[in-house]
Amino acid sequence: MKNPRILSHFQESAELKMISAELLAEPIEQAIELMFTALSNGNKILACGNGGSAADCQHFAAELVGRFERERLPLPALALTTDSSIMTAVANDYSFQEVFSKQVQAFGQAGDILLAITTSGNSQGVLNAVDAALERDMRVIALTGKGGGEMRSRLTDADVHICVPHDRTARIQEVHLLTIHCMCDGIDAALFGGDTDE
Q1: How many other C-beta atoms are found inside a 10 Å radius of the C-beta of residue 191?
Q2: Annotated binding site
Q3: Which residue positions in the chain have pLDDT lower than 70?
Q4: E-assigned strand segments in 84-153
Q5: Torsional sign, CA 149, 135, 23, 16
Q6: What are the binding residues for substrate?
Q7: Residue 72 Cα distances to 22, 42, 59, 68, angstroms
Q8: Three-class DSSP category at 147
Q9: Nearest in space to 133 (alpha carbons), one of 160, 161, 107
């Protein structure tokens, strides 16, 4: 007998993905265009988030620096979640809410992109990183859920907000991962053209 609790997870996830496909295809396409333009101009992508969102940042950076589905030159992407010495020094000497913003100030340049991931849209450390990025004339791509939270008021018209229409963190993260894969595929297609089978 099939476990109904397990089946309900799959069903809810599948239904949300189909709803999100309709709502989020356009902002995902806009995000790909922003990233493509930045990378084409010799800029880089910085990514930040906490917990599962930190793992998503690292996944994204790994796909760009390594590869997604095709052999190509490495692309400059940096997860701001990986240097334990920087993170613990900033958290100890200042506050944890500055672990990402300090790195954006150190590594970010005009024309770079910040990929800011927070399922609630209210992570103060991620919001601080967004503020720092905008001060440096960077563009922001925000992945959120739960209505977007405080992130909505931080972004400019030149930024992209991809807000998953759900309140459950696990479901939001599942769509964030699919979104990241869409962005990686779109970046490869925009930069190098064609399909992976060519």
Answers
A1: 14
A2: 50-52, 59, 63, 92-93, 118-120, 123, 173, 181
A3: 1, 194-198
A4: 113-117, 139-145
A5: negative
A6: 50-52, 63, 92-93, 118-120, 123, 173
A7: 30, 16, 17, 9
A8: helix
A9: 107
Determine contact, residues 96/86, Cβ cutoff 8 Å: no
* Known binding residues for Zn(2+): 59, 63, 173, 181
Q: How does strand 45-48 pair with strand 113-117?
A: parallel
Q: What is the structure's pLDDT at 96?
A: 98
List the 45-48 sheet strands across, edge first: 77-79, 45-48, 113-117, 139-145, 160-164
194 backbone φψ class: left, alpha, beta (φ>0; ψ -120 to 50): left
Q: Are 105 and 48 in contact (CB under 8 A)?
A: no
Q: What is the pLDDT of residue 191?
A: 87
Task: Provide the angle, in degrees to the nearest 10, between the axes of the packed helices 169-192 and 4-40.
Answer: 40
- For 115, phi then psi, to 5°, come to -95, 110
Q: Which pTM does this prediction carry?
A: 0.95
What is the structure's pLDDT at 193? 82
Q: CA 79 to CA 87: how far, in whole Å?
A: 12
**Phi, psi dihedrals of residue 130, rounded to the nearest 5°:** -60, -45
pLDDT at 11: 96
Place of tokens 């459950």: 168
Nearest Cα neighbor of 49 from 165, 172, 182 is: 172
